[in-house]
Design goal:
By secondary structure, this protein is mainly β. Helices cover 4% and strands 50% of the residues. The chain is built from 2 helices and 32 strands. The strands form 7 sheets. The protein has a 6-stranded antiparallel sheet with strand order 22-32-23-28-29-30, with no helix packed on it. The chain has a 5-stranded mixed sheet with strand order 4-3-2-1-19. Strands 27-26-25-24-31 form a 5-stranded antiparallel sheet, with no helix packed on it. A hairpin with an 8-residue loop joins β6 and β7. It is globular, with a radius of gyration of 23 Å. The structure holds beta-D-fructofuranose. The site of beta-D-fructofuranose has 13 residues, from β1, β5, β9, β13 and β17.
């Protein structure tokens, strides 16, 4: 007798059917898109049994956010992804309102544990609530614990919310599981809580690591907590931030950098920086590569920009390029994973050429490129350098450097949008020792700009037609530049 299909079986059948209809040509070359339908946050990013696993917030049945599932893909090099069957569907009392964001950790017995937020739908006289759930599996199929939700509001001291309580990031150390999870405290607003468990099922509240106190936004989402170059990083994605210092208004990602006493579980915040200055980057998550690199990947979108974005493909949204993060002079730095070199082909190099009027360089055009431009500004009267990409007669995306002010403007307002939404970002870009470096990763409908070796990053989707492939360089006075273009295959 055949069993009735479960909701997850039905999603997996749907995926198989869709996969046959979808062509890889329509997708970005190396940025992960959902198999079909909608995607937001990266989840469960880990190295497990010889490959990287990346799960994602997923609504397979439409290109809009809806009841949250976990999509799943695996990769050897973080750039070529293979789809796996949907990992979680909202199909139990503990998560009927959605399987929200979370993470993964390998257990001592070799199984993979997923920790995620289960949303319990609203009922009569009851608002929707959030609590933490776990599921155990072999890397393809996962069984949800019957004890879910294993972390409830009742585990927390007074003042914490049962409505905004989500996004567990789990790891294993000192023979126990630890987790950071986001909450919205009645007075302190966004707050990150540390939890601990011997078995993944029985959890206790340890401490609150840090809180917004309305300084850095309202609710803090998708926390991550890791050691990096001798410092401790607490990374959060705040909602509804007010613009201040280098932070733009709205949704952003913040790195709180400080020291951590692992015995007392005391985190002391010492500095704060934006993680990405772009128009479309949110909710990143990191993992450790087997060689010790810390790799970060984010949703290459945000809750404001996605509303009006065109739905041109049978899927919507993509992840950022996975990035190596590291510390330099107290700052969190990022660069595309070095595996990207495996995609390089047809390299073109111009060593110290002098430009002034708008110039095209033979061989330097296209929408699939890893492009490095070094401005040698010493002795030059140049104040303004302008780089145009994705250019044709009616479109361009502009990167404008004001060398005297040490500021860069990323501007996609001529990139083909007809929407009255944010198209520009201003970001610090200072000349160091007579040089300013820009590295641009272009993958069809996106640009990721790494300034000065990853000191600051600007990530943005661009709606520009793919036929707009021009790249030009211009300076308001003669300027020497070195250009290295790697086309990507
Ligand atoms: C962040 C977020 C998370 C939540 C998920 C729901 O983008 O709002 O807090 O778990 O998306 O899809």
């Amino acid at each position: 007798m055949s069993k009735n299909p479960t909701p997850l079986d039905r999603v997996r059948d749907f995926e198989r059917e869709q996969a046959m209809k979808l062509s890889a040509d329509e997708r970005p070359l190396f940025h992960l898109t959902p198999l079909v339908g909608w995607m937001n946050d990266p989840n469960g990013f880990c190295w497990y049994k010889g490959q990287y696993h990346l799960f994602y917030q997923y609504h397979p049945f439409s290109r809009q956010w809806g009841p949250m599932h976990w999509g799943h893909a695996v990769s050897q090099d973080l750039l070529h992804w293979t789809y796996m069957p949907c990992a979680l569907a909202p199909d139990t009392a503990a998560d009927a309102g959605g399987c929200f964001s979370g993470s993964a950790v390998e257990m001592p017995d070799g199984r993979l544990m997923l920790a995620y937020t289960g949303v319990q739908p609203a009922g009569t006289f009851r608002r929707e609530t959030q609590a933490q759930c776990v599921a155990f599996g072999d890397g393809t199929d996962f069984e949800k614990s019957l004890l879910n939700p294993v972390i409830r509001h009742a585990h927390l001291p007074e003042g914490y919310s049962e409505f905004d309580f989500r996004d567990p990031k789990i790891w294993r150390e000192d023979g126990v599981y630890r987790m950071v999870v986001a909450n919205r405290h009645a007075e302190k607003q966004g707050a990150i809580l540390l939890m601990e468990s011997a078995d993944g099922l029985n959890w206790r509240f340890v401490t609150e690591l840090d809180a917004s106190c309305s300084e850095y936004g309202r609710m803090w989402e998708c926390p991550d907590f890791f050691e990096l170059g001798g410092r401790q990083v607490l990374m959060v994605s705040p909602q509804e931030m007010h613009a201040r210092e280098e932070f733009h208004a709205g949704y952003g990602t913040v790195a709180l950098i400080g020291s951590y006493d692992g015995k007392e579980h005391r985190f002391v915040r010492e500095s704060v920086q934006p993680v990405d200055h772009g128009l479309t980057f949110y909710a990143p998550q990191t993992t450790l590569a087997p060689d010790g690199r810390r790799i970060m990947i984010g949703w290459m979108d945000n809750w404001e920009t996605c509303k009006e974005a065109p739905r041109r493909h049978p899927w919507y949204a993509q992840m950022s390029v996975p990035r190596e993060v590291f510390m330099k002079d107290g700052r969190l730095m990022q660069l595309p994973v070095r595996e990207i070199k495996g995609l390089w082909q047809d390299d073109v190099r111009y060593e110290k050429v002098t430009i002034s009027e708008e110039t095209r360089l033979p061989g330097v055009h296209g929408r699939l490129m890893d492009l490095s431009v070094t401005l040698h500004s010493e002795g030059s009267a140049c104040r303004r350098f302008t780089l145009h990409v994705a250019k044709d007669d009616s479109h361009y995306v502009q990167i404008r450097c004001d060398l005297a002010r040490g500021e860069l403007v990323f501007d996609r307002s001529h990139g083909g949008s007809h929407r009255d939404i944010a198209h520009t970002r201003h970001v610090k870009a200072e000349v160091h020792d007579g040089e300013l470096t820009l590295r641009l990763l272009m993958d069809k409908e996106s640009v990721e700009l790494f300034i000065n070796g990853g000191e600051r990053v600007v990530t943005s989707l661009i709606p520009t037609p793919l036929a707009s492939e021009g790249i030009t360089f211009a300076a308001d006075a003669p300027l020497t530049v070195t250009v290295e273009a790697h086309h990507l295959k």
